[in-house]
């Protein structure tokens, strides 16, 4: 658009049709023209923001932009898939396909973004300033204030909030690492053994059990033994089987050597047994014994 | 102190095929039943959801929490399991 359309100069019906054309949810029919103007500015003019940056427009735009943001887009579930995706994109979230199963997640994400929408922009500005130079924080704030006037006061408080949030996020992770470091190396031990700092609690004392990151499951000696035994369970049976086989073979040999009268029935029983169990080695043996007894 | 469980290793070792949703690391009986109630009866359906969310960690974890009430550890385990499976087979 080569020129700026001042929504305030348009008629109410014109604003209405514009909003419908841009798929924006209309406010109730009896609302004032101002509401339509705000909506118009928010949805339609914001898309032209990238094309021009006018200082005149911004203050009006920002002041107007904050209120309707909460009033109109309050219900992401009322948006179409395309609008939801567009809004997410505007907040820097490259959303995937908005399907039945993903819609809920993206709506939730958008709600989260809308709530922290103002703080997010300030956080980005803050980060940019932090990365550049920490000393320039205050100066950067002042510069930002000059460029984005109405959000000056909120910026500082939001900044403080963000900093606190960041600090709060860190300590929960610290105690875990500190515990491990303190227990195992134990190099920084004080004479009394008590390590008291403002942030770290006294470990192992005053009914405060040491919390390992991954608590070990208690393993008693009996379970260890049982595990070993179970590992060897199969080999043990094989050993026993082999033992009895050897015993039987020796017995047979001793019987043959004795050469008693009861050899034949024993040999027959051996034959039967060997046929069923042993297989070829025993068969050879019985054949030899048969031939030996046959000759006798 | 292993960072991945036995279940994770077993799942990541081979294509998931028709494995049930409870074969995923972090998903036990309770969570598995809730997922099944929501229509995610096989591991590949959850994989589908993970892919449709463009493998985004935060979105997938949020979805998992909303769908079956998984806690942070379970979310982490499930996400890690699927991520590694995709790295290996996708």
Automatic annotation (TrEMBL), chain A:
Which CDD domains has this protein been placed in?
LEM_LAP2_LEMD1
**The entry's keywords:** Acetylation, DNA-binding, Membrane, Methylation, Phosphoprotein, Transmembrane, Transmembrane helix
| A UniProt-annotated Pfam family | LEM
- Boundaries of every LEM-like domain copy: 4-47
Transmembrane stretches in the record are 236-257
**LEM domain location, by residue?**
73-117
Work out whether the entry's keyword set contains Metal-binding: no
Q: Where is the composition biased (Acidic residues)?
A: 133-156
Q: Supply one GO molecular-function term.
A: DNA binding
Output the superkingdom of the source species.
Eukaryota
Q: Which PROSITE patterns match?
A: LEM, LEM_LIKE
- Spell out the GO cellular component terms annotated for this protein, sorted alphabetically and separated by semicolons: nuclear envelope
Spell out the InterPro entries in the cross-references. LEM-like_dom, LEM/LEM-like_dom_sf, LEM_dom, LEM_domain
Return the annotated region ranges for Disordered. 115-157, 274-296
Entry's family note: Belongs to the LEM family.
Q: What is this protein called?
A: LEM domain containing 1
| Organism expressing this protein natively | Fundulus heteroclitus (Killifish)
The organism's taxonomy opens as: Eukaryota, Metazoa, Chordata, Craniata, Vertebrata
From TrEMBL, chain B:
Q: Which GO terms describe its cellular component?
A: condensed chromosome; cytoplasm; nuclear envelope
Which molecular function terms from Gene Ontology are attached? DNA binding
Print the keywords alphabetically: Chromosome, Cytoplasm, DNA-binding, Nucleus
What's the chief localization of this chain?
nucleus
Entry's localization field:
Chromosome; Cytoplasm; Nucleus envelope
Q: Which InterPro entries match?
A: BAF, BAF_prot, BAF_sf
User: What's a GO biological-process term for it?
Assistant: chromosome organization
Entries under PANTHER family matching the protein = BARRIER TO AUTOINTEGRATION FACTOR 2, BARRIER-TO-AUTOINTEGRATION FACTOR
Q: Which family does it belong to?
A: Belongs to the BAF family.
Protein's UniProt name: Barrier to autointegration nuclear assembly factor 1
- Species of origin reads Fundulus heteroclitus
